[in-house]
């Protein structure tokens, strides 16, 4: 008996999730085509910002621990295959008040799962990581399995491996519409940057149409369009809010002075020392120490027009928090940049079928903490596409949970 032919699949959006899905499907011998409106590895979506934290002792809860353990192995395998490390195992710190809910969750998850987490007393902390200032009620947790991810390199690596496995890839290509045909999906696209207000006029499926619009048919489609997810799936426009993150980089003073801020001596982590002292911190990988202040993020009305202008009081607020909590950085950032990501009401992502288009699988709304789990989420998505089920525990990400 001949095996059933593999379905033809389109992956729309080849960024954080899309690059991993493309790689997963191509590696399984699936005829797959990726569509990306920019270049591979661009920084305009959820993969922007130079670095990402990886940790097993997770403030989002213990249900993620099995997924994170698998993700860590997947990142190591991907790095081995490309010959370029994607995960730097520098450890991940949680520093903050013992009464802070996130700190309590990290400590509880570490104990429940028996994680390789060391609680550092004040003397050991000052000896090993003297860059940090501790407040009276701060505790310090070092997740030895944590580390630093390189998002740009990871997206490029996954896409390159997918192409090597047979995937087709269209970059600088605008997908105009994704239409159910009854037996599959027709993808309407046009090579070139997005044109606002353009309506597809395909003039028949399967070939070139007027105005350079082309239509290609697939058995299934995966939508991984990040901040553009509400445009790709209009029903999610009210369920996934696109928010702007403002990130700051602080110069570390050159090669010799900067050595103490390198990943081997300054682990990535989060700080929870009171409302004004809550931020993520990242070691210097070439552009300085990155700091992401944990304050409410402003909504983005149009992802094509991300506002780069930062409120004048923002950088001073970040600088003040850094001065209170870290030693040896300058009194103001050397770079301030804006990025965006999609957030759901419960801060968990979405993996599920579009109820109006049964041949379309949607991935989005990963709420600022999806990158580290992208290889595992992509594996689950590939399972769902090909088998209709997965053994990976992602039921809590079902699209059906949303209103």
TrEMBL record:
It comes from the Bacteria. Its cofactor is FAD. InterPro entries: FAD-dep_OxRdtase, FAD/NAD-bd_sf, MTOX. Signal peptide: none annotated. Keywords: FAD, Flavoprotein, Oxidoreductase. Residues 8-384 form the FAD dependent oxidoreductase domain. Gene3D superfamilies: D-Amino Acid Oxidase, subunit A, domain 2, FAD/NAD(P)-binding domain. GO terms for molecular function: flavin adenine dinucleotide binding; sarcosine oxidase activity. Residues 190-210 are annotated as: Disordered. Pfam families: DAO. PANTHER family: FAD DEPENDENT OXIDOREDUCTASE DOMAIN-CONTAINING PROTEIN, PEROXISOMAL SARCOSINE OXIDASE. This is N-methyltryptophan oxidase. It comes from Streptomyces cacaoi.
């Amino acid at each position: 008996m001949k095996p059933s032919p593999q379905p033809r699949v389109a992956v729309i959006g080849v960024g954080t999730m899309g690059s991993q899905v493309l790689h997963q499907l191509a590696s399984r011998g699936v005829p797959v085509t990726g569509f990306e409106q920019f270049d591979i590895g661009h920084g305009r979506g959820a993969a922007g910002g130079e670095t990402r934290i990886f940790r097993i002792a997770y403030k989002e809860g213990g249900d993620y621990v099995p997924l994170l353990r698998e993700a860590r192995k997947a990142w190591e395998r991907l790095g081995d295959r490309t010959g370029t490390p994607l995960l730097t195992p520098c450890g991940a710190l949680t520093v903050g008040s013992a009464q802070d809910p996130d700190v309590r969750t990290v400590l509880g998850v570490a104990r429940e799962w028996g994680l390789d987490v060391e609680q550092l007393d004040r003397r050991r902390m000052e000896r090993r990581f003297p860059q940090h200032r501790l407040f009276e009620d701060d505790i310090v947790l070092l997740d030895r399995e944590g580390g630093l991810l390189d998002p740009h390199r990871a997206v490029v690596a996954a896409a390159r491996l997918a192409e090597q496995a047979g995937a087709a890839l269209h970059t600088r290509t605008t997908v105009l519409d994704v239409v159910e045909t009854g037996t599959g999906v027709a993808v309407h696209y046009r090579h070139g940057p997005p044109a606002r207000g353009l309506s597809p006029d395909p003039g028949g499926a399967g070939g070139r149409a007027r105005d350079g619009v082309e239509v290609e048919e697939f058995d299934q489609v995966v939508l991984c369009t990040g901040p553009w997810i509400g445009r790709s799936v209009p029903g999610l426009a009210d369920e996934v809010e696109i928010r702007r993150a403002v990130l700051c980089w602080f110069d570390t003073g050159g090669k010799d002075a900067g050595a103490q801020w390198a990943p081997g001596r300054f682990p990535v982590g989060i700080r929870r020392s009171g409302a004004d002292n809550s931020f993520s911190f990242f070691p210097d990988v070439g552009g300085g120490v990155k700091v992401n202040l944990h304050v409410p993020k402003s909504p983005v009305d149009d992802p094509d027009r991300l506002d780069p202008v930062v409120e004048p009081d923002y950088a001073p607020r970040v600088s003040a928090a850094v001065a209170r909590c870290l030693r040896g950085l300058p009194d103001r950032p050397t770079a301030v940049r804006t990025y965006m990501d999609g957030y759901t009401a419960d801060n968990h992502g979405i993996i599920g079928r579009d109820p109006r288009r049964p041949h379309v699988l949607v991935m989005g709304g990963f709420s600022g903490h999806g990158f580290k789990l992208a290889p595992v989420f992509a594996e689950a998505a590939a399972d769902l596409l090909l088998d209709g089920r997965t053994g990976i525990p992602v039921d809590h990400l079902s699209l059906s949970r949303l209103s």
